[in-house]
Amino acid sequence: MLKNNLGYPRIGAQRQLKKACEQYWAGKTGREALSGVARQLQEEHWKLQLQAGIDLIPCNDFSYYDHVLDMSLLLGAIPERYTPVVTDVKGNTETDLYFAMARGYQRDGLDITAMEMTKWFDTNYHYIVPEFTAGQQFRLFSNKVFDAFSGARQVTGKIPKPVLIGPVSYLLLGKEKEAGFRKIDLISRLVPVYVELLNRLQSYGAGWVQLDEPFLAMDLDEAEKAAYEYAYREISRSCKGIKILLTTYFEGLRENASLAAGLPVSALHIDLVRAPEQLDAVLKTIPGSLSLSLGVVDGRNIWKNDYRSSLALIEKTVAAIGSERTMIAPSCSLLHTPFDLDLETDIPGEVKNWMAFARQKLQELDELYRIAAGETALLEANRLARESRRASARIHNPAVKARIAAMSEADARRHSGFDVRQPLQHKRFGLPRFPTTTIGSFPQTDDIRRLRAALKKGLLTPEQYDAEIEKATVEVIRWQEEAGLDVLVHGEYERNDMVEYFGEQLDGFLFTRNGWVQSYGSRCVKPPVIYGDVSRPGDMTVRWSRFAQSHTERPVKGMLTGPVTILQWSFVRDDQSRRETTNQIAFAIRDEVNALEKAGIGMIQIDEPAIREGLPLRREDRQNYLEWAVKSFRISAAGVQDETQIHTHMCYSEFNDIIEHIAAMDADVITIETSRSQMELLEAFAGFRYPNEIGPGVYDIHSPRVPSVAEMLGLLEKAAALLPAGNLWVNPDCGLKTRKWPETAAALENMVQAAREARRRVGSGVA
């Protein structure tokens, strides 16, 4: 059996890539320093996988920002608006072009928007969406994959396995930027470039090449199925010396099993963590020439593998097709897991014994291989660890289980419908048309980060820390008043992360020191670990919301993270259903919402940016998820009076297919990301006649560029053409935590001016 790894975390054990990129963007270092860090990280990760005994070591899985963006650059799918970055500015290189596509470009007399960004299937990783036109042409543009192959071969002394997104999935990940064609119809133009790419890799000495085709685990129409057959037939016909490992993950193949198994490739990878039941169907379908890579180690969670279950799958496969055609692997790239559990020193030993990070998952592959060869002592140690977790008193809270068992439909209903609530709320707050607000967080400056670090090191007392946070909170309240914002936020300076902050105050969670994973670009998050029943022992946000509201006459939103987002952005226990865990979180948030209302907070925002992310990949599975996900949000929000205004926020989501469920959440105000898509997302709300109030984002906070008043006004006018002006709010796409103050201040001041001009054009008065 070959031990096959699909990909490895990029950012480094100490987030070296994040720091190197941000220093480069700030102009503090040059390209040589950035590429030096990238080279060092890749070499370390190749050596680590070599030492772990991995046979098929991936290369080209590393990326400065995003692997889909890497493919767009490699294939020459570069939107025309970026041409001036390298043609009109002396000294700019491919690196500058690459980051301009990811982040936008606003200097040297140029003002170019970034490419759209959205979620990578049902993960919290974001990718840069390829843009296609009817006349789209492709060509080999970048040498990154060839450089990675040569580097990995030199470092490991072995022939590495280049990793690429497959041609069909690459097209399906993209977006048509003009009418009159389907992106999948570009397959005949794209495949010749893949043929050229694969043949060139073969000339470098490549044997195996991994082509990721996750869309094979999705619902496909006939044109998309035909594209798969065409693409891989042409690749097989024109690339005789290369072995293709076709990789699927995040779901089972289901009705696409015969399609995938029938493609002329050398090996097929399937995700047996997400869909173990697919193995029988695949074994019945695959031809005698096809090898099978078994994704038996969870590439998306941090719990120790169940060796008995994995071995049963391995043994079944070996019995059917032989060990020489069997590979063992993680279910997907380890990009979605933290780097190394050995770096964690604060996790209780009992709980740590239940866990495995990326480095340990490579060890699990090796141990599974050795157990299959007869080392049964490893199997017994694994059994004891899993039994310890199952029986631990840390996990179970009878009071929490009783509350969930007793919940009723009334727990998920507001007192009155929106048509009753809206006029009561308008009377209470008296806001103008196009009221302005932000999503919640303000820039976390170096000073704020130093305060938090000093508190953790014991250099500040909690009282000293709180006093400094109070100062920063008052300053941001005053700034918002002076800028003219109508509804304020307290800035969230006391918070490290929108999920981690709450998890630290909820029972059933634990935290890591170095469990970072990449969310997008240099943005890394440290997901909490939900290991047991969840409850709220006390107030979490009331103190800061009450403090902020006491320093202004304008309404200040209480800011909370919703139950589905806390679930999605944590490493979740796998010993009970996700639905049950979410309901536990929902009641904990409900208690906090009620406490905020009692403290006099009249607007409460319960962010749910991950509710679309959690949507099952297959349509037939979605209704059940949407029912319990929406209900959990309603449980968290339904305990307040009609005059209390409930907000929610969602970002980087396609809403067309779930709009009725978004409406069923019954939030009084929803804010969404719309600026990169130029308000396209609003069409779903308009077509549905969305009844409640909505704040479409008018500027992209994931880019450092400052949009003009005219640009934001134009977006507002588009929004007003689609939805009633009296229901529209004005806000950024998302929170401002990751931005710098100069760009934030300039953008928000422009946003306020744009709202004032919109009021003038549609008439003044109360919304």
Explain what you see:
- This is 5-methyltetrahydropteroyltriglutamate--homocysteine methyltransferase.
- L-homocysteine binds at residues 439-441, 492, 607.
- The active site is at 702 (proton donor).
- With 767 residues, the protein is of the alpha/beta class.
- The chain folds into two domains: 2-79 and 115-391, Alpha-Beta Barrel (TIM Barrel), CATH 3.20.20; 419-762, Alpha-Beta Barrel (TIM Barrel), CATH 3.20.20.
- It is built from 28 helices and 23 strands.
- The strands form seven sheets. Strands 1-14-13-12-11-10-8-2 form an eight-stranded parallel beta sheet. A five-stranded parallel beta sheet has the order 19-20-21-22-23. Strands 3-4 form a two-stranded antiparallel sheet.
- Helix 8 runs parallel beside helix 9 and helix 16 (398-405) crosses helix 23.
- The termini are far apart.
- The relative contact order is 0.09.
